[in-house]
Specification:
globular; mainly alpha; de novo design (two linked rop proteins); 181 residues
């Protein structure tokens, strides 16, 4: 499991870093030119410009992607160490799990804010949502050896994401419906 977890963490850390970097670059462009339309602003709903200019995008007093720029490279590095079969102390894995748990809480708060307060979805943010939830889930299974949940690991994660997709569908149904008709 450690090598597979390593690949998951390396891939998740890489995707998370890339998404955080893209968001940070887009934020710099918006700060330099308030009329700039970010590349990830596709339509009224899928619009990272709307998200990144909201108060929720700087909840700690600096742009949220800075957290990803700090955290995801650590995840990537630890994933590579696991792939290389470097034994990591239990406290490192538990610390990573604790960080991922905080990340999942923050991501779910951001999901709520995106759906019900901001009214827009950021594609790069959604990548971070998926990566953070997936890494948290598999770190938890690895660290706490939960046999029943391990048996249904993919089913639990699938239901988790289907609930989020359902919430997205419900929150923006009026818009999605116009695309279908």
């Amino acid at each position: 499991m450690s090598k597979r977890l390593g690949w998951l963490l390396a891939a998740g850390g890489g995707l998370g870093t890339a998404s955080a970097a893209a968001l940070t670059i887009e934020k710099f462009h918006v700060l330099a030119n308030p009329g700039y339309v970010p590349s990830c602003s596709i339509n009224p709903i899928v619009s990272c410009g709307s998200v990144m200019t909201s108060a929720q995008a700087e909840v700690f007093g600096f742009p949220n992607p800075v957290i990803g720029l700090a955290a995801f490279p650590v995840v990537l590095t630890l994933g590579v160490l696991l792939i290389a079969k470097v034994p990591l102390p239990r406290w490192v894995m538990l610390g990573l799990n604790a960080g991922a748990a905080l990340g999942v809480l923050f991501v779910h708060w951001l999901i709520f804010q995106s759906l019900y307060r901001i009214g827009a979805l950021c594609p790069y943010c959604m990548v971070v949502w998926v990566v953070t939830i997936t890494m948290f889930w598999y770190l938890t299974l690895h660290n706490f050896r939960l046999p029943v949940l391990r048996k249904y690991h993919s089913a639990v994660l699938t239901v988790w994401f289907l609930v989020i997709i359902g919430l997205i569908g419900e929150a923006f149904w009026d818009y999605w419906r116009t695309l279908l008709l």
